[in-house]
Amino acid sequence: MTTRSSYPLAGKRVWVAGHRGMAGAALVRRLQREDCRLLTVSRAEVDLRRQAAVEAWMDQARPQAVFVCAATVGGILANSTRPAEFLYDNLAIASNVIHAAHRSGVEKLLFLGSSCIYPRLAAQPMTEEALLTGPLEPTNEWYAVAKIAGIKLCQAYRRQHGCDFISAMPTNLFGPGDNYDLQQGHVAAAMQVKVHRARQTGASQIEIWGSGTPRREFLYVDDLADALVFMMKHYSDEPHLNVGTGVDISIRELAELVARVAGFEGGFVYDASKPDGMPRKVMNVERLAALGWRAPTPLEDGFRASYEWYVRNAAAAR
Ligand code: GDP
């Protein structure tokens, strides 16, 4: 049984590392509703892969609470074509920020992982206990190994130094600020781009990678931000916690959902030369639910808001 703790954010100096990313930006929006002092630093000022730069920034900014949202991220193709970056960047970010947080006496830190840390053939829905029980999915093992190291760092600093460092494992995210590059991004963003382009060009078909049968769970990024604030305030323990909806849909169903939201009435074709990746990925979210948090936004509402944002902002900027 996980017990609720209390760490109020009011009046605290709170650093969101990675505030320009999709998750970090949502967290910045969410933290505006907390009475805290938000700290951010640009990549040009502090490269989080450089230990000395991170330590100097921490010494000077002295955050009390830290959210580690910074990461080199990407979809199935980016992960398998840029393995060195996915492993090195994410290992360096995790170890630099977590160690510097310990060194400068940060009161509480939340490290953001990913559901791809779980074994390829983990029983579904995946519980937190599935971690390190089997081989990883090869298309994203580089990223996964770095994120597993981040969780272990939080646990090790908690055990050895008594640091209040926790980890959250979000499922596949979507929403404002996603990566809309078709080669680098994830499927949720790709579907929005493809549907929008098809509507603009009058194309009758959209291409879907793989077979369309893999199943994924999708969480609206503003719901993730809400969960992270909830965990920062109410969770203080060694095990990482899953953050998701606990509900999955097939890639084909996702395409149909985005098409419905966008008003695209054409069909789909499948490109079998592209990988399917994990056959199914859905989280068991009971532990977080037992603490009192569940995702509030229905999937279709999330995709509607997300698609509107994309059309107004990202698509318009191209
Ligand atoms: P994953 O969850 O780590 O596998 O990463 P993705 O979100 O990139 O891919 C999820 C699933 O969607 C995989 O089975 C992909 O092959 C499939 N998919 C279908 N169409 C696309 C697309 O246009 N882009 C991406 N990234 N994935 C797609």
Description:
The structure is a single chain. The mean pLDDT is 95. Helix 8 packs across helix 10 (299-317). The N and C termini lie far apart (49 Å). Helix 1 (22-31) links the parallel strand 1 (13-17) and strand 2. Helix content is 42%, strand content 15%. The longest helix has 21 residues, at 83-103. It is of the alpha/beta class and 318 residues long. The protein has a six-stranded parallel sheet with strand order 2-1-3-4-5-10, with helices on both faces. It has a three-stranded mixed sheet with strand order 11-8-13. It has a two-stranded parallel sheet with strand order 6-9. It has helices at residues 22-31, 51-61, 76-81, 83-103, 141-161, 187-201, 221-234, 251-262, 286-291, 299-317; strands spanning 13-17, 37-39, 65-68, 108-112, 165-170, 172-174, 205-209, 215-216, 218-220, 241-243, 249-250, 267-271, 280-281. The chain has ten helices and 13 strands. The chain binds guanosine-5'-diphosphate. Residues 75-76, 116, 140, 172, 185-187, 190, 208-210, 214, 216, 251, 274-278 line the site of guanosine-5'-diphosphate.
The biggest sheet, with number of strands, parallel, antiparallel or mixed sense and barrel status, is: 6 strands, parallel
Q: How many strand elements?
A: 13
Helical residues, percent: 40-55%
Report Rg. Answer: 19 Å
> How far do the termini sit from each other?
49 Å
- List unreliable stretches of 5+ residues: none
Bound molecules: guanosine-5'-diphosphate
Principal-axis shape equals globular
**Class by helix and strand content?**
alpha/beta
| Strand arrangement across the biggest beta sheet | 2-1-3-4-5-10
What fraction of the residues are assigned to beta strands by DSSP? 15-25%
Number of helices: 10
User: What's the mean pLDDT score?
Assistant: 95
Element order: H for helix, E for strand: EHEHEHHEHEEHEEEHEEHEEHH
